[in-house]
UniProtKB/TrEMBL annotation:
SUPFAM superfamilies: Thioredoxin-like (SSF52833). One of its GO terms (molecular function) is arsenate reductase (glutaredoxin) activity. This is Arsenate reductase family protein. InterPro entries: Arsenate_reductase, Arsenate_reductase-like, Thioredoxin-like_sf. The keyword Oxidoreductase applies. It comes from the Bacteria. It comes from Streptomyces morookaense (Streptoverticillium morookaense). Belongs to the ArsC family. The keyword Acetylation does not apply.
Length: 122
């Protein structure tokens, strides 16, 4: 498993605490420093089964500056959203956990983190 985190995020710290408590094996990616490429974001979106606007933190200052609220949410705009996430990684919802079975979850709840662990063990 790999978990994309921002150490300043309480949800990320909670997810790490749970993973550690359960003895789960994982790799940490500080995605604000090791910024995902557009291709990596596309891959993660496929694993999540989500669209880029589904994992965008639209209340962030960067989002307001870019005017994301007004961007279309359709196939034509998809690459524009992905480019914005790669250029402004703070916009990416966190933590994102990629499981060994090829799936991924946004681990904002204990249930989601446990789901990723179950997939990794499966």
């Amino acid at each position: 498993m790999e978990i994309w985190i921002n150490p300043a995020c309480s949800k990320c710290r909670s997810a790490l605490t749970l993973l550690d408590a359960e003895g789960a094996g994982y790799t940490v990616r500080h995605y604000l420093e090791d910024v995902p490429s557009e291709d990596e974001i596309r891959t993660v979106l496929g694993r999540l089964g989500l669209e880029p606007w589904d994992i965008t933190r639209t209340q962030e200052a960067d989002a307001k500056e870019l005017g994301l609220e007004d961007w279309p949410r359709d196939e034509e705009a998809r690459d524009r959203w992905i480019a914005a996430l790669s250029a402004h990684p703070r916009l990416i919802q966190r933590p994102i956990i990629t499981a060994d079975d090829g799936s991924a979850v946004v681990g904002r709840t204990e249930e989601a983190v446990r789901e990723a662990m179950a997939r990794a063990d499966g």
